Amino acid sequence: SILGDTSIAQWAWDFGDGNLDTLHQNPTHTYAISGVFDVTLMIEDHNGCKTSILQSNYITVRDTPEVEITNVPTSPICQQLPTSINLGTQVHAGAGALSYTWDFGNNQTGTGNTANPTYTTSGNYPVQLTVSDLYCTATIVAPHNISVSEPPIVDFEIDKPISCGKQTHTANFVDKTVGAVAWNWNLGNPN
Question: What's the pLDDT score for residue 88?
């Protein structure tokens, strides 16, 4: 506003979204909804003179892209390493073409609406996706970490691998697997 022959007594801002500010000369306003908004400033000086200015379509608020990461395993991946998984996206909102930048939590990144990260070590990996449209950017995190665990390498010994004659053979098996928590022996005996 430009000063006339007396000082300004009151400012009234209309932000175009149903909200007003009559307390501040230079207000800050947060728009809670998307849209295109007119902004009006009305002023009154100490002589009671009033004037206003309308700026049509002055503020544009756009929704950020809404995307979710899909195909995130809910249980640990238990495979020989390295192992890969297929991640996808589901788009709920966005303006125009979207660009995708992935962070797989293992010092690897990727682009595109689908991804196929490779994990070379066991661990829990947070996955983050940044999506941009023509106007806005949003960063989302997978609903849970990707848990990768290499299965134990199975190994065992037997004390007497050979038996002679038709006698009953008794053998003692010793599991040498490191990291096993459960065992299921199949001795190949149909009886």
Answer: 92
